[in-house]
Automatic annotation (TrEMBL):
Keywords: Coiled coil, DNA-binding. One of its GO terms (molecular function) is DNA binding. This is Replication region DNA-binding N-term. Pfam families: KfrA_N. It comes from the Bacteria. Residues 86-152, 183-217 form a coiled coil. It comes from Marinobacterium lutimaris. Residues 7-110 form the KfrA N-terminal DNA-binding domain. Transmembrane segments: none annotated.
Length: 222
């Protein structure tokens, strides 16, 4: 503790001497004057010296024992200290303004990215709605086509039954012993009916296949 107090007094004395010589008291300049002491201790003592300098000048004005050259130097150092503080404040203010500008830019870019993402989602949603509507229309058309196919199949089945009935009737007539032209006519009709029956069977098979394909398509999820 004694060493610290002694160092503080030495710092005050050395700072006064430097000030009288027109030299700004710095850590290094003070240390060279006193010849010892850590920079941390000197810096703390020098800060105290600067704090008391204004009070000492005021007291000196009340009790003008301090020479005028010393007062002039003190005033110059005080003006320099104020200028340094103002410059430092301006630097910090400019840094804060720059940081504010950067943050505003980041916020604007973030908002723009959010708006663009929302716009893309809305566009994608619109395309999906159009696709769903197209699939619904396609499904409706397939159902309508399937209904028509069922109707055609039903009519062809009726025609096939009629042809079979006529064929059976012709066979009965042929077995009844009728000859001559009636027999020839029955054979011709039987041949024609056989061809028609084969055509109707083929058409019925095609319709059954189409019907099965349409049902498979309708079972697919939309």
């Amino acid at each position: 503790m004694t060493q610290t107090v002694g160092t503080r007094e030495k710092v005050f004395t050395a700072a006064d001497m430097l000030l009288e010589q027109g030299i700004r008291p710095t850590q290094q300049a003070v240390r060279e004057q006193i010849g010892s002491g850590s920079l941390t201790t000197i810096n703390k003592a020098l800060n105290d010296w600067w704090k008391t300098l204004g009070e000492r000048i005021t007291r000196q004005q009340q009790h003008p024992e301090l020479p005028e050259p010393v007062l002039n130097i003190a005033n110059q150092l005080w003006d320099r200290a104020l200028a340094y503080a103002e410059n430092r404040f301006e630097e910090q203010r400019q840094q804060l303004l720059q940081r504010e500008s950067e943050l505003r830019g980041e916020i604007e870019r973030t908002e723009h990215g959010g708006h663009q993402a929302l716009k893309d989602l809305q566009s994608q949603n619109g395309r999906l709605l159009d696709r769903c509507e197209a699939l619904a229309n396609e499904k409706h058309e397939l159902e309508h086509k399937l209904l028509k196919t069922d109707e055609q199949t039903y009519r062809l089945t009726q025609q096939l039954d009629e042809v079979r009935a006529k064929l059976k009737q012709s066979e009965q007539m042929h077995s009844g012993g009728q000859g001559g032209e009636a027999l020839i006519e029955a054979r011709v009709r039987l041949s024609i009916q056989d061809e028609e029956l084969a055509r109707l069977r083929n058409r019925n098979d095609e319709l059954n296949r189409e019907n099965a394909m349409l049902r498979q398509q309708l079972q697919k999820p939309a």
